[in-house]
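Troubleshooting log. The previous structure file for this entry was overwritten by mistake, so regenerating from the original sequence record. Sequence copied from the archived sheet and checked twice against the printout by T.R.
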Amino acid sequence: MENFTEVFRNGISESQLNEFITAVVDIVDDDTMNDVLSILDNGIRKVYRDASNPAKNKSLLFQNKFENKFEALLLDIGDFMLELGDEQGNYFGSEHHWECPEFNEYEFSDDIEEVFKKMLPLLDDAYKYETIEENYFISLIYDIEDGISSYPDWSGAEYNEWCIEKNGAEVILKWLWLNKKSVGTFIVEAFNTIKGKNITNSFEPSFIQNLTDHDKEKLYLEIKKHSKDKEWKDALDDTSHFLHNIFHFVTQIGNPDGFIEESIENITQKWHYGIPVYEYYFEQNDYQNAEKYIQQTFKEF
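Regenerated output below.
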Protein backbone atom coordinates (compact mmCIF):
# COMPACT_ATOMS: atom_id res chain seq x y z
CA MET A 1 0.00 0.00 0.00
CA GLU A 2 2.93 2.35 0.67
CA ASN A 3 4.03 2.04 -2.95
CA PHE A 4 0.50 2.71 -4.12
CA THR A 5 0.06 5.83 -2.01
CA GLU A 6 3.46 7.16 -3.08
CA VAL A 7 2.61 6.69 -6.74
CA PHE A 8 -0.88 8.07 -6.13
CA ARG A 9 0.43 11.23 -4.42
CA ASN A 10 3.18 11.80 -6.98
CA GLY A 11 0.70 11.51 -9.82
CA ILE A 12 -1.70 14.27 -8.76
CA SER A 13 -1.48 17.68 -7.14
CA GLU A 14 -2.54 18.30 -3.53
CA SER A 15 -5.55 20.31 -4.71
CA GLN A 16 -6.65 17.36 -6.88
CA LEU A 17 -6.08 15.01 -3.94
CA ASN A 18 -8.21 17.30 -1.77
CA GLU A 19 -11.03 17.19 -4.32
CA PHE A 20 -10.80 13.39 -4.47
CA ILE A 21 -10.90 12.90 -0.70
CA THR A 22 -13.70 15.45 -0.33
CA ALA A 23 -15.73 13.40 -2.82
CA VAL A 24 -14.95 10.18 -0.91
CA VAL A 25 -16.00 11.76 2.39
CA ASP A 26 -19.39 12.51 0.89
CA ILE A 27 -20.17 8.87 0.04
CA VAL A 28 -18.75 6.74 2.89
CA ASP A 29 -19.51 6.57 6.61
CA ASP A 30 -17.00 7.49 9.34
CA ASP A 31 -16.08 3.88 10.23
CA THR A 32 -15.28 3.01 6.63
CA MET A 33 -13.29 6.21 6.22
CA ASN A 34 -11.26 5.46 9.36
CA ASP A 35 -10.49 1.95 8.05
CA VAL A 36 -9.25 3.43 4.78
CA LEU A 37 -7.14 6.08 6.53
CA SER A 38 -5.46 3.49 8.75
CA ILE A 39 -3.67 2.00 5.73
CA LEU A 40 -2.77 5.30 4.03
CA ASP A 41 0.27 7.47 4.68
CA ASN A 42 0.38 10.50 6.97
CA GLY A 43 0.31 12.95 4.08
CA ILE A 44 -3.01 11.67 2.77
CA ARG A 45 -4.46 11.54 6.29
CA LYS A 46 -3.52 15.21 6.68
CA VAL A 47 -5.36 16.09 3.48
CA TYR A 48 -8.39 14.20 4.82
CA ARG A 49 -8.29 16.17 8.07
CA ASP A 50 -8.07 19.38 6.07
CA ALA A 51 -11.01 18.28 3.93
CA SER A 52 -12.98 17.48 7.08
CA ASN A 53 -12.30 20.95 8.53
CA PRO A 54 -15.10 23.18 7.18
CA ALA A 55 -13.16 26.45 7.47
CA LYS A 56 -9.96 25.08 5.93
CA ASN A 57 -11.87 23.10 3.33
CA LYS A 58 -13.74 26.23 2.27
CA SER A 59 -10.41 28.05 1.93
CA LEU A 60 -8.92 25.22 -0.14
CA LEU A 61 -11.95 25.07 -2.38
CA PHE A 62 -11.75 28.84 -2.91
CA GLN A 63 -8.07 28.50 -3.81
CA ASN A 64 -8.83 25.68 -6.25
CA LYS A 65 -11.58 27.71 -7.87
CA PHE A 66 -9.36 30.79 -8.06
CA GLU A 67 -6.43 28.90 -9.56
CA ASN A 68 -8.68 27.36 -12.20
CA LYS A 69 -10.01 30.81 -13.09
CA PHE A 70 -6.55 32.37 -13.28
CA GLU A 71 -5.17 29.40 -15.20
CA ALA A 72 -7.88 29.92 -17.83
CA LEU A 73 -6.63 33.49 -18.37
CA LEU A 74 -3.04 32.27 -18.65
CA LEU A 75 -4.17 29.73 -21.23
CA ASP A 76 -5.85 32.53 -23.22
CA ILE A 77 -2.57 34.43 -23.26
CA GLY A 78 -0.81 31.21 -24.27
CA ASP A 79 -3.22 30.83 -27.21
CA PHE A 80 -2.49 34.39 -28.36
CA MET A 81 1.23 33.71 -28.14
CA LEU A 82 0.90 30.60 -30.30
CA GLU A 83 -0.68 32.74 -33.02
CA LEU A 84 1.94 35.47 -32.75
CA GLY A 85 4.78 35.19 -35.24
CA ASP A 86 2.88 32.66 -37.36
CA GLU A 87 2.30 33.81 -40.94
CA GLN A 88 -0.80 31.60 -40.98
CA GLY A 89 -1.98 32.86 -37.60
CA ASN A 90 -4.81 35.19 -36.64
CA TYR A 91 -2.62 38.28 -36.32
CA PHE A 92 -1.09 38.26 -39.79
CA GLY A 93 -2.89 38.88 -43.06
CA SER A 94 -4.58 41.45 -45.29
CA GLU A 95 -8.11 42.60 -45.99
CA HIS A 96 -7.77 42.02 -49.73
CA HIS A 97 -5.88 39.29 -51.56
CA TRP A 98 -3.90 41.80 -53.61
CA GLU A 99 -2.57 43.55 -50.51
CA CYS A 100 0.68 42.62 -48.81
CA PRO A 101 -0.05 40.79 -45.53
CA GLU A 102 1.03 42.51 -42.33
CA PHE A 103 0.97 42.15 -38.57
CA ASN A 104 -2.33 43.35 -37.06
CA GLU A 105 -0.95 44.88 -33.87
CA TYR A 106 -4.29 46.43 -32.91
CA GLU A 107 -6.15 43.12 -32.87
CA PHE A 108 -3.40 41.51 -30.81
CA SER A 109 -3.32 44.44 -28.36
CA ASP A 110 -7.12 44.35 -27.98
CA ASP A 111 -7.14 40.60 -27.32
CA ILE A 112 -4.45 40.64 -24.66
CA GLU A 113 -5.85 43.84 -23.10
CA GLU A 114 -9.18 42.09 -22.53
CA VAL A 115 -7.40 39.32 -20.60
CA PHE A 116 -5.46 41.87 -18.54
CA LYS A 117 -8.76 43.58 -17.66
CA LYS A 118 -10.05 40.31 -16.18
CA MET A 119 -6.73 39.58 -14.52
CA LEU A 120 -6.34 42.91 -12.70
CA PRO A 121 -8.81 42.27 -9.83
CA LEU A 122 -7.29 38.80 -9.30
CA LEU A 123 -3.69 39.87 -8.71
CA ASP A 124 -3.88 40.03 -4.91
CA ASP A 125 -4.90 36.36 -4.74
CA ALA A 126 -2.41 35.41 -7.47
CA TYR A 127 0.32 36.89 -5.26
CA LYS A 128 -1.08 35.21 -2.14
CA TYR A 129 -1.18 31.76 -3.74
CA GLU A 130 2.03 32.26 -5.77
CA THR A 131 0.12 31.40 -8.93
CA ILE A 132 2.72 32.91 -11.27
CA GLU A 133 6.40 33.74 -11.08
CA GLU A 134 7.56 37.17 -9.98
CA ASN A 135 8.99 37.98 -13.45
CA TYR A 136 6.04 36.52 -15.42
CA PHE A 137 4.87 39.79 -16.99
CA ILE A 138 8.33 41.09 -17.88
CA SER A 139 9.12 37.73 -19.49
CA LEU A 140 5.82 37.93 -21.35
CA ILE A 141 6.78 41.28 -22.86
CA TYR A 142 10.06 39.83 -24.12
CA ASP A 143 8.19 36.82 -25.53
CA ILE A 144 5.78 39.13 -27.37
CA GLU A 145 8.68 41.10 -28.84
CA ASP A 146 10.32 37.84 -29.94
CA GLY A 147 7.04 36.66 -31.48
CA ILE A 148 6.64 39.87 -33.49
CA SER A 149 10.25 39.69 -34.67
CA SER A 150 9.49 36.20 -36.06
CA TYR A 151 7.41 37.69 -38.86
CA PRO A 152 9.34 38.07 -42.16
CA ASP A 153 11.39 41.24 -42.60
CA TRP A 154 9.40 42.30 -45.66
CA SER A 155 6.22 42.54 -43.56
CA GLY A 156 7.54 45.53 -41.62
CA ALA A 157 6.25 44.03 -38.37
CA GLU A 158 9.26 45.41 -36.49
CA TYR A 159 7.96 48.95 -37.18
CA ASN A 160 4.50 48.28 -35.75
CA GLU A 161 2.87 50.47 -33.09
CA TRP A 162 2.05 47.62 -30.73
CA CYS A 163 2.02 48.34 -27.01
CA ILE A 164 0.46 47.05 -23.82
CA GLU A 165 -2.54 49.26 -23.08
CA LYS A 166 -3.74 50.73 -19.78
CA ASN A 167 -5.17 47.57 -18.15
CA GLY A 168 -2.03 45.63 -18.98
CA ALA A 169 0.14 48.51 -17.79
CA GLU A 170 -1.70 48.62 -14.47
CA VAL A 171 -1.41 44.83 -14.11
CA ILE A 172 2.36 45.13 -14.52
CA LEU A 173 2.56 48.07 -12.11
CA LYS A 174 0.44 46.41 -9.45
CA TRP A 175 2.43 43.18 -9.76
CA LEU A 176 5.61 45.18 -9.20
CA TRP A 177 3.99 46.73 -6.12
CA LEU A 178 2.95 43.36 -4.69
CA ASN A 179 6.49 42.00 -5.16
CA LYS A 180 8.31 45.17 -4.08
CA LYS A 181 11.29 45.08 -1.72
CA SER A 182 10.56 48.67 -0.67
CA VAL A 183 8.51 51.66 -1.78
CA GLY A 184 11.67 53.26 -3.13
CA THR A 185 12.69 50.31 -5.27
CA PHE A 186 9.09 49.96 -6.50
CA ILE A 187 8.74 53.44 -7.96
CA VAL A 188 12.17 53.35 -9.60
CA GLU A 189 11.52 49.90 -11.08
CA ALA A 190 8.05 50.97 -12.21
CA PHE A 191 9.35 54.08 -13.94
CA ASN A 192 12.20 52.23 -15.67
CA THR A 193 10.02 49.28 -16.68
CA ILE A 194 7.29 51.38 -18.29
CA LYS A 195 9.86 53.71 -19.88
CA GLY A 196 11.90 50.96 -21.45
CA LYS A 197 9.17 48.70 -22.85
CA ASN A 198 6.26 48.79 -25.30
CA ILE A 199 3.87 49.80 -22.55
CA THR A 200 1.64 52.86 -22.52
CA ASN A 201 2.56 55.40 -19.86
CA SER A 202 -0.82 57.17 -20.09
CA PHE A 203 -2.97 55.62 -17.38
CA GLU A 204 -4.14 56.14 -13.80
CA PRO A 205 -3.12 53.27 -11.48
CA SER A 206 -6.32 52.76 -9.52
CA PHE A 207 -4.77 50.44 -6.92
CA ILE A 208 -2.83 53.42 -5.49
CA GLN A 209 -6.09 54.70 -4.01
CA ASN A 210 -6.28 51.65 -1.72
CA LEU A 211 -2.82 52.07 -0.21
CA THR A 212 -2.38 53.10 3.40
CA ASP A 213 -1.65 56.75 4.16
CA HIS A 214 1.79 55.63 5.35
CA ASP A 215 2.59 54.08 1.94
CA LYS A 216 1.16 57.11 0.12
CA GLU A 217 3.41 59.42 2.09
CA LYS A 218 6.45 57.24 1.39
CA LEU A 219 5.58 57.22 -2.31
CA TYR A 220 5.32 61.01 -2.27
CA LEU A 221 8.75 61.34 -0.67
CA GLU A 222 10.37 58.83 -3.03
CA ILE A 223 9.01 60.53 -6.16
CA LYS A 224 9.92 63.95 -4.78
CA LYS A 225 13.48 62.68 -4.35
CA HIS A 226 13.75 62.09 -8.13
CA SER A 227 11.68 65.06 -9.27
CA LYS A 228 14.67 67.17 -10.39
CA ASP A 229 15.93 64.46 -12.72
CA LYS A 230 15.00 65.56 -16.28
CA GLU A 231 13.25 62.33 -17.28
CA TRP A 232 11.25 62.25 -14.06
CA LYS A 233 10.43 65.97 -14.30
CA ASP A 234 9.18 65.55 -17.87
CA ALA A 235 6.96 62.67 -16.74
CA LEU A 236 5.63 64.64 -13.77
CA ASP A 237 4.81 67.60 -16.02
CA ASP A 238 2.81 65.33 -18.37
CA THR A 239 -0.68 65.14 -16.83
CA SER A 240 -1.47 61.91 -18.70
CA HIS A 241 1.65 60.09 -17.44
CA PHE A 242 1.17 57.45 -14.75
CA LEU A 243 3.95 58.97 -12.66
CA HIS A 244 2.18 62.35 -12.61
CA ASN A 245 -1.09 60.61 -11.69
CA ILE A 246 0.50 58.70 -8.82
CA PHE A 247 2.31 61.78 -7.54
CA HIS A 248 -0.79 63.98 -7.76
CA PHE A 249 -2.82 61.47 -5.78
CA VAL A 250 -0.27 60.83 -3.01
CA THR A 251 0.45 64.57 -2.68
CA GLN A 252 -2.90 64.83 -0.87
CA ILE A 253 -1.18 63.03 2.02
CA GLY A 254 2.44 64.09 1.54
CA ASN A 255 1.82 67.79 0.95
CA PRO A 256 -1.85 68.92 1.18
CA ASP A 257 -1.11 72.59 0.41
CA GLY A 258 1.01 71.59 -2.57
CA PHE A 259 -1.83 69.36 -3.74
CA ILE A 260 -4.20 72.35 -3.98
CA GLU A 261 -1.59 74.45 -5.78
CA GLU A 262 -0.81 71.68 -8.27
CA SER A 263 -4.52 71.05 -8.84
CA ILE A 264 -5.12 74.73 -9.64
CA GLU A 265 -2.18 74.73 -12.03
CA ASN A 266 -3.56 71.79 -14.03
CA ILE A 267 -7.34 72.36 -14.08
CA THR A 268 -7.10 73.29 -17.76
CA GLN A 269 -5.58 69.85 -18.44
CA LYS A 270 -7.83 67.84 -16.13
CA TRP A 271 -11.13 69.46 -15.23
CA HIS A 272 -11.75 67.16 -12.24
CA TYR A 273 -8.69 68.65 -10.52
CA GLY A 274 -10.98 71.59 -9.82
CA ILE A 275 -13.26 69.58 -7.50
CA PRO A 276 -10.92 69.36 -4.48
CA VAL A 277 -9.98 73.01 -5.08
CA TYR A 278 -13.45 74.49 -4.70
CA GLU A 279 -14.22 72.03 -1.89
CA TYR A 280 -11.11 73.29 -0.10
CA TYR A 281 -12.20 76.92 -0.40
CA PHE A 282 -15.70 76.07 0.81
CA GLU A 283 -14.17 74.51 3.92
CA GLN A 284 -12.17 77.72 4.41
CA ASN A 285 -15.39 79.77 4.05
CA ASP A 286 -13.74 81.50 1.10
CA TYR A 287 -16.86 81.56 -1.06
CA GLN A 288 -15.41 83.94 -3.61
CA ASN A 289 -12.61 81.56 -4.58
CA ALA A 290 -14.94 78.58 -4.27
CA GLU A 291 -17.28 80.17 -6.82
CA LYS A 292 -14.33 81.05 -9.04
CA TYR A 293 -13.10 77.45 -9.24
CA ILE A 294 -16.57 76.00 -9.61
CA GLN A 295 -16.97 78.13 -12.72
CA GLN A 296 -13.55 77.17 -14.04
CA THR A 297 -14.21 73.49 -13.40
CA PHE A 298 -17.47 73.60 -15.34
CA LYS A 299 -15.78 75.57 -18.09
CA GLU A 300 -13.14 72.85 -18.56
CA PHE A 301 -15.62 69.98 -18.23
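The CA atoms of residues 13 and 19 lie 10 Å apart. Archived copy saved in two places this time.
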